[in-house]
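User: quick one, sequence for these tokens?
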């Protein structure tokens, strides 16, 4: 079960995607596409190696999104981020605070293994 940090992150992403889909002139009017993107984001959050200590995605050393989806989320966040302050000010401020958190040490099992030179 997700803790409060992950639940808040999921809610923030949900609100950003919904805002983008509803109001952005460049948004494709395909609800299934955005539903799938949100489902993907939820799965990534559920599997985050940092768990409740996760940093903001842009600060994270582990890029868990596929490159195309990562670029799409960046576009959505760039567009929706400033507008979130007016529509969801508490979520926005909490997200900005999370963005300033230090990145925790990556657990040993998730660190890349380096081969020794022979």
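Assistant:
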């Amino acid at each position: 079960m997700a803790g409060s940090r992950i639940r808040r992150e999921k809610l923030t992403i949900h609100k950003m995607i919904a805002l983008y889909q509803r109001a952005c002139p460049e948004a494709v009017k395909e609800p299934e596409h955005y539903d799938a993107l949100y489902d993907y984001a939820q799965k990534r959050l559920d599997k985050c190696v940092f768990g409740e200590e996760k940093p903001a995605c842009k600060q994270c050393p582990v890029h868990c999104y596929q490159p195309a989806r990562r670029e799409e989320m960046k576009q959505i966040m760039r567009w929706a981020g400033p507008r979130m302050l007016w529509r969801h000010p508490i979520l926005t401020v909490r997200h900005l605070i999370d963005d300033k958190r230090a990145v925790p040490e990556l657990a040993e099992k998730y660190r890349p293994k380096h081969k020794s030179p022979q």
